[in-house]
Amino acid sequence: MTKTANDLSSLGWELDSMGELDHRLVKAPYIRLSSEKRGAQGDCVYVFDLRITQPNTSYMSTIQIHSLEHLFLAGFREHLPDSFISVAPMGCQTGFYLILLNEARARVVQKIYKKILTQILSMSEIPYANDKDCGQFTHHNIKEAQKIAKMLLHFESEWLGVFGVAA
Ligand SMILES: [Zn+2]
User: Fold this and answer.
1) Would you say residue 117 lies in a domain?
2) From ligand 1's centre to the CA of 73, what distance in Å?
3) Is 14 part of a structural domain of the chain?
4) How far away, in angstroms, is 137 Cα from ligand 1 center?
5) Predicted structure pTM score
6) What tens digit of pLDDT does each residue of 116-153 get?
7) Phi and psi dihedrals of 58, rounded to 5?
8) What does the pLDDT read at residue 165?
9) Residue span of the structural domain in which 103 resides
10) Does residue 126 form part of some domain?
């Protein structure tokens, strides 16, 4: 199902930012609703890009992306328990995929993302960093994750501008 312009703007997303996009034209960091799938019962699964670094220009280190994966997992579980399905790193190391059930309002996603990033700044440990919950539990660094969180919070006013800040 394709969202109409009205649907997208009422949810708070930029028009033309859904679906396939040209990675040469985007301006990171940004958040976008990339796709949705509605089931027969009316429930809807939404996939978002949490783009962090500029595609084909700069990348998170594997330790940053791994620690942020754990921090985002703990944060979205805590703050969006009914809607959160999954958060997973992009293989290109420039961001994460966030998957939610029945929640696609831009202001809600933005608010929770900000809350999680702000929490990260005052944390001293990485959640689930143990050999029971993680496949490489020594590969973490809270300070490295905090560098990314700080950068993202600095650019908060630009998060919803996928193609750069609207003039
Ligand atoms: Zn892990």
Assistant:
1) yes
2) 10
3) yes
4) 6
5) 0.94
6) 999 999 999 999 999 999 999 999 999 999 999 999 99
7) -145, 155
8) 62
9) 5-158
10) yes
